[in-house]
Every structure is written in C-alpha cells, then in structure tokens.
Amino acid sequence: MKFFEQLGRYFIFITQVFRKPEKSAVWFRQFVRELQTLGVNSVGIVILVSIFIGAAITIQTAYNMDNPLYPRYLVSLTTRDTLLLEFSSTIIALILAGKVGSNIASEIGTMRITEQIDALEIMGVNSASFIVSPKVFALVIFMPVLVIISIFVGIIGGWVSAILSGVVTTKDFVYGIQLEFKPFYIPYSLIKSVVYAYIIVTVSAFHGYYAKGGALDVGKSSTKAVVHSSILVLLFDLLLTQLILS
Questions:
Q1: Exposure winner among 4, 13, 60, 225, fewest CB in 10 A?
Q2: What distance in Å separates the CA atoms of residue 108 and residue 178, rounded to the nearest whole number?
Q3: Which of 190, 198, 195 is closest to 138 using CA atoms?
Q4: pTM (2 d.p.)
Q5: Over 162-224, what HEC string results?
Q6: Element (H, E) at 124
Q7: What are 146-184's pLDDT values in tens digits?
C-alpha cells in the first residue's frame, strides 16, 4: 500500500511541476543556471569515465578475440557498438544518478526542512514548478550532449589503449569503427538518454521535496533518490531496448 501511496504522490507532484511557471523571465534565468550546474559541470566526470570505459572495452574485447581467424578490426567494431547501444547512455546515466541525483535531492530537501519551500508557497508561488521544472528541462536538453561526448571520448580512449597495448593497429581500429555503421544507433542512444534524464531529476526532486525532519533525513532522502533512480534507469533500459530494437 505504501508503494501505491508514493506512486500517487509522485504523479501529483509531476502535475505541479509542469504547470505554467509564475514568471517566464525568472524561470529562464533559473534554467540557464541549472544548465551550468547539472550539465556543464558534469562534462568532466563524463569524459573521465568514458575514457576508461572505452579503453577497458577495447582491451577486454581484444584479449577475448585471440583466435587468429578473427579479424582485428572486430575489436573496434565491438567497442563502437557497445558504447553506442549501452555504455554511453546507461552507464553515464547511473553515474549522474549518483552525482546529479544526490545533489538535487539534498538541495531541495534542505530547502524543505529550512522552510524555504513553505515561504514560497505562502507567497503564492508554485514551488514545485519554480524549483524543479528548470532542472528537468536543463538535464533533458543537456543529457544527449553528454552522451555524444561520451561516445566520442570513449572511442578515443579505446583507440589510445589499443595503440599503447599493441592489440590493434590504427588502420584496423579505424576500419572497424567505420564498418557496417548503423546510423539508427545514435538516435536510439539519445532517446534513452532523454528518458534517463527525466527519471533522474524527477525522482530525486520528489524525494527531496517531501523530505521531513532534520539533516539526517535529508541524507536518507538523497540515498533513496540515488537508489530509486538507478533502479528505474536499469528498468527503463530493458523496456526501451525491447520496444525500440525489437
């Protein structure tokens, strides 16, 4: 019963979030600020993780294709498709669920327990829309950019690791990257990233918005936000893969 109660509260919360904002100029300034906080500030960790993911996939694939009958360009082809289909969208989303999700939940939770949200509502402001909707649109718009960066950097990381370890030549690596490329994989990955961004922001904001108690409870809300958004990302990864690729 508690699950359905929380689910109903979540959908009521979402209807409040997407109501028309009080002042469009104020909303837009907040939106630009969230682009910087949630999007631009996440570029560094996305680049770092993607380099190591691309390198690890390349080396593992190379050592699992030690049969001389396998052409070496299959290593980079596998790296490319793995990054496009799964890693650059889902793994980055899971990382951002920890980084961005916990930040959103703790920020809004602190506003709740310090009665800043109550003050906004007393002034007649739709607090859910004012606080949360700029975050939703900011990450939904910027998440595909992060995924594209991840794909590009991951392939570069794979190429560097292939050259340094000597498992694949540059010629074979480039040939494998270009071989039988399916353009549909890119929009597929971007569609998933948009859904993941929406899940991360709304679930994290929901837990922060309904936080109660003190600082310890804000920490618990932040932990729940990360866990629940990560589970939903994995669940929707399975659903979207079945719906789009089947």
A1: 4
A2: 45
A3: 198
A4: 0.91
A5: HHHHCCCCHHHHHHHHHCCCCCCHHHHHHHHHHHHHHHHHHHHHHHHHCCCCCHHHHHHHHHH
A6: none
A7: 999 999 999 999 999 988 888 888 888 889 888 888 888
